[in-house]
Amino acid sequence: MTAIVGTINKHGVAIAADSAASIGIGGKYMTGVKKIFPLCNVPNRKAVLAVYGNLELIGTPWELIANEFRHKTLQKTFDTLGELVDAFFSFLKSRDYFSTSDEQKANLIFTVRHFFDMLIEKANNSETDINDVIYAWRLFIWKPKLIGLSEKHGKIAVNIAEEEIKKGCERLRETGANIRYSDEEMMEIVKANLYKNTLPFQTGLIFAGYGEKDMFPRIYAYDTGCVINNTLGKRVNTLVNISKAQPAAICPFAKAEDARTIINGYASNIFGIAKESITKTDKALINSIAQLAEKENNPELARKIREIDIEPYTKRTILVAKNKMETDFTKPMINSMANLEINDLKNLAESMVTVVAMRCKASQQPDVVDTPVNTVVLTKEDAIGL
Q1: What is the pTM of this model?
Q2: What per-residue confidence (pLDDT) applies to 1?
Q3: Is there a single domain that holds both residue 17 and residue 88?
Q4: Confidence of residue 26 (pLDDT cuts 50, 70, 90)
Q5: Which of 1, 307, 322, 369 is least enclosed, having the fewest CB within 10 Å?
Q6: How many CA atoms lie within 13 A of 96 on its CB side?
Q7: Structural domain tally of the chain?
Q8: CA nearest 9: which of 232, 367, 250?
Q9: What is the mean pLDDT of the segment spanning 182-197?
Q10: Residue 184 CB partners (closer than 8 Å, separation 6+)
Q11: Domain extent for 11
Q12: Mean confidence (pLDDT) of the chain
């Protein structure tokens, strides 16, 4: 697993990443892993690529790909970071994603096998309803496709991996779990996830820095999907263009919920807990009021009181609380970053990743985030840490 945080204002951008990487789905990991790579470091043009998730593209390390791109584009001009990002994706396409057609097909089959490995792991967990897990993946049938891919690509992927999907369904049923979905339905679910979803074991790409005419730094982040028929699917994760209207931002990526706990001042599940507590309290209050009506010999009023739908009021209460936290805590924190010096941006990004790493260690979470933290700082004039 990875923790990456970007801190950015008009003065520059800092990207901090931990140094642990997961190996497969068995809980093993390695340390000392580099996840931030230079894309260009020439006068007035500084940019890096940070990677989370899978550190390879069909067997080729992203570090080698970034190095190749940097050498190929030394003499080229990119007015904006956006132009550089477009050039990077075009470069991947021009090199056939550093893979042969057979390797791309083999990677699709591996992806399907890994997908079923995840389902089987859940099915073997007695505390998990596997049908709820499958339903969550099924929702992608109705979601938008990834940029670059279409249903045609989904059909191509299923044709390539059809035998592996059938084997996966058989393996899943061998767990003894009561699967409510037919093999035909599972085929549609897998197809949708291959061309509409960025699966957990694929790659997130974070581009940060400046084009030659960019006055302020930018962060562009994408989640990538499968390579199908020599086309890479991707989805926009984060776009930050620093301007007078948006003078600063904190951008957590992998392990984002843990990092947002620091930014927002509360854990990501706090409002779910609050909703449950408020609902129980409101139901008890309504029941007490209804009992008072019954004591006054007014059963009809008591019935109407018990039929009150408290859901809209609960949602409104939660929304008010969220807005209050946003106004009183999160926005002031972000706004205070606008005038931070570069070294302070660096320290903030490093500290957030370190806190996430320590929290993972203390709670013995299966997702490993480890120190030391690697940090790169970019300004219009300088690149520190490359």
Answers
A1: 0.86
A2: 61
A3: yes
A4: very low
A5: 307
A6: 8
A7: 2
A8: 250
A9: 94
A10: none
A11: 4-54+60-98+202-267+322-384
A12: 89
- 229-274 pLDDT per residue, tens: 999 999 999 999 998 888 999 999 877 777 777 777 777 778 888 8
Whole-number CA gyration radius for the chain: 25
pLDDT over threshold 50, residue 303: yes
Residue 29, pLDDT > 90, answer no
Q: Are residues 241 and 340 in the same domain?
A: yes
Is a pLDDT exceeding 90 seen at residue 157? Answer: yes
Query: Do 123 and 247 belong together in one domain?
Result: no
List Cβ neighbours of 328 (8 Å cut-off, separation of 6 or more).
none
Between CA 63 and CA 60 the distance in angstroms is 8
For residue 105, what are its two tokens?
């097909």
Query: Does residue 296 fall inside a structural domain?
Result: no
Same domain, 209 and 189: no
Bridge partners, residue 4, by sequence: 17
CB 108 within 8 A of CB 58: no
Of the chain, the end-to-end C-alpha distance in Å amounts to 22
pLDDT at 22 over 70: no
What pLDDT score does 23 carry? 56
Q: Which of 181, 196, 211 is the last residue of a domain?
A: 196
CB 160 within 8 A of CB 108: yes
- For residue 120, being part of any structural domain is answered with yes
Percent of the chain with pLDDT over 90: 61
* Residue 15: partners with Cβ closer than 8 Å, 6 or more residues away: 4, 5, 6, 36, 48, 50, 206, 208, 349, 375, 376
Q: Are residues 179 and 214 in the same domain?
A: no
Rounded to an integer, the average pLDDT of 73-87 is: 93
